[in-house]
Amino acid sequence: MNRIDRLLALILYLQSRRTCTAEAMAEHFGLSVRTIYRDIAALGEAGVPILAEAGIGYSLMKGYLLPPVNFSEQEAYALSTGVMLAQRMTTHSYNEKMQSALDKIKAVLPNEAKHRLELLAKGMATPQTEHPQQADLSVLQQAIARQQLLTFDYQNASQTHSQREVEAAGLVFYLGRWHLIAWCRLRQDFRDFRTDRIQNLQLHSEQFQARSDFNAKDFLQSGTPPAQLTAQILFAHTAADRARREWWQGITDEQQNAEGVVMTLNCSDWTSLACWLLSLGTAAKVLAPEELKQEIRRQSGAVLALYS
Question: Which of 68, 83, 94, 155 would suit a FRET pair with 57, their CA atoms being 20 to 30 Å apart?
Fold first, then answer.
């Protein structure tokens, strides 16, 4: 990215936020803080009204906006890909909004670019899957952004139903499902609600004051158990790639040999690792530790007893 493009991107970045620190901008653009300071000074010399407040950060003067910016062809490709991926992870009503936004972008592209975008759309696909019945994500997003009260009927894992009144804080996607993180007035604590278990969702005009500075990334990290255990596993070459893709707690070492690939896997408990290894059949062999071997034997014996 040349400096002119970077300065424009910096204005757009500031325009999309109330305040931002130099450190955050440096991390976002992959630059040094010193370079950010120079770019901020250059924008000020060019007449861009940037305000600075000690301990808080930088912001654009209220009312300053760039004129509308046309999307580039590559940006349209990226958004088209985003629409395709959203079709696998969201509801039909949400997909309609995504498609509507993409259609508006197409409308301002040159005819040749439109044709190339259509060719790209035909050349990309994801497996067709049935969408689980779930709460309308656009309603949940509005509740978070506008801090409006939500009510709904909730069915937990034991099939018990209850009515909930919540203050929405975050929306996160993990384990193949969207989860609403919210302060539950019934339980007087933050709760994790799977959106496919929410029914009769209602958005109310009542607004609330956020109880904490919720951050979705921090929430996911805090909910991940520490991987303090390690195991050495010999994978057949055909299974090694699957291990790299699927084992979510991390692989710290790999060594090739004649039989396959010896990997050092991190894990938080032997039970979950053993369960996953059994799904690989004879393509994975535990070399160490003995505790994991014993867990493999225990689970294998339980499965064998089930079918005896």
Answer: 68
